[in-house]
Amino acid sequence: MIRLFRAIEFFLVEATVNIRRHGLMSLAAIAIVAFVFLLVGLFGLMLANLRSATEYALSEVTFFAYLDPRASLDDAHVLRMDILDLEGVKSAKVITKEEAFERIAKRLWGSRDLGNIPNRLGHSVRVTAIDPRDTLRLADRISGMAQVKNVVDARQSVSKLLEWARLVDVGVVVIGLLLALAVVGIIHSTIRLTLFARRREISIMQMVGATSTYVAGPFLLEGAFHGTVGSGIAAGLLFLGYDYLLGRAQYWTWLPLVREQQIIWGFWGMIIAGFVLGVLGSLFSVRRFLHRPVVV
Amino acid sequence: MDDEMTARDGPMVEFEHVSMVYPEGTEALDDVTVAIDEGEFVFIVGPTGEGKSTLIKLIYRELLPTMGRVLVAGGDVAALPLRKVPYLRRRIGVVFQDFRLLPHQTVFQNVAFALRVVGEGGRKIRRRVPELLEQVGLAQRPDALPSQLSGGEQQRVSIARALAHEPPIFLADEPTGNLDPDTSWEIMQLIARVIAERGTTVIVATHDKLMVDAMHTRVIELSNGRVVRDAPEAGY
User: Fold this and answer.
1) Please, what is the average pLDDT of chain A?
2) Is-above-0.90 flag for pTM?
3) Contact B101, B146 (CB under 8 A)
4) Is residue B115 part of a domain?
5) Which element (helix H / strand E) includes B228?
6) ipTM of the complex as predicted
7) Would residue B135 count as lying in a domain?
8) Which chain A residues touch B if contact means CB-CB below 8 Å?
């Protein structure tokens, strides 16, 4: 245990000395990491809002099951109960043929009163699925039920929305991975420069019998520092910026932005990712360096 | 290997038909077979580029032989797992012509560095470093930076650092190459006194003729990577 504390003390002291001695290089690394994470964060915020908008649009997706015009209102209520029994149905509401007729009349002629025009519409049931992705499956299922004349399911719009949602998901993964690679690359290069600058010291350490852990430890800490501080700065700036935007956007009803509370994990995730990628970046550099012969 | 180094029979360092060819094709050693016993003081001599440094590097496993075996305390260094190499090196003190000191650290810190990097505690460091500096005659200058020291003093610091782990083997690669004759003599006397008197096996690679002649001890001469002379109590 004492040895572990000594090792940690050694890593901390050496990493601090190194960061101070190569202050400009450290600053540059932190600035670049912060910039990349700022891009990651901006992209993430855009995607989070896009995703939320898509989910919202999908949650609004409903479809109608039209009954035969000869079916009674009781038939419509029976159908509604049958639909509610189906798995995955969030709500089902009966629209009477009178309500439907009034709506059409209002939409077409701007008046509810159509005088002598006979109402040949049937009753209908408006259905919403719990998961919008189940809409088409439910529509197919309901179209086969008794008394149902046809189902209008906005098939094209749902497919497009689902496709869009999938695209957003893939985009998150692909661009997230690319940006993560960029962060690893930046920290890898910075630590490699530091290692080169300290090659004499490292060779002396190896010569006097330091284990790889002792040689690598300070550099891993340094990488973790660059990654965490860089991503922390980016997360802080993004949080403040987004908070400001939310303040301004509270009256913009056309732009329902995601609240900070819903994405706070994203800011913490950025900081943790900065730490992990920082350690990974320096680990790659140190591993390659440790396997070289000891030459000053 | 640690325990074997302290109580064992047989040579402390042994080369069995060792050849060393560098990746670019330079043949540094060719079928070298020598045995050096515990407590021996041996000079490896020969002109520059004849394989002296290569021979030294093979002992502390900076290099691996292309053919043959290098045995330290009876153990084949090539067979040593990578993770055990640091423990071998703690049992071998090494000094070089260019001293290899950390320029931004004081004399005390340079010597303490060898102890810190192996996880020694502050109390031991505060006790051990002054002892080492006393042994090499630098007890009065613990706070000096390497740039404030003469070449001879810097080599003394490097010797103190090499002795930090009380190694049973001490290697020196051209330790007086950057020093004037008087200082060279002082350094060699220091090595002989402080190290050889403790029963340490000392191997010094040099082309300093005056030094070798003055010490009058075992000399192994290399030429074109081969041992051409191995004589006890000889001159250059």
Assistant:
1) 83
2) no
3) yes
4) yes
5) strand B226-234
6) 0.84
7) yes
8) 2-3, 6-7, 10, 21, 200-201, 203-212, 214-215, 293-296
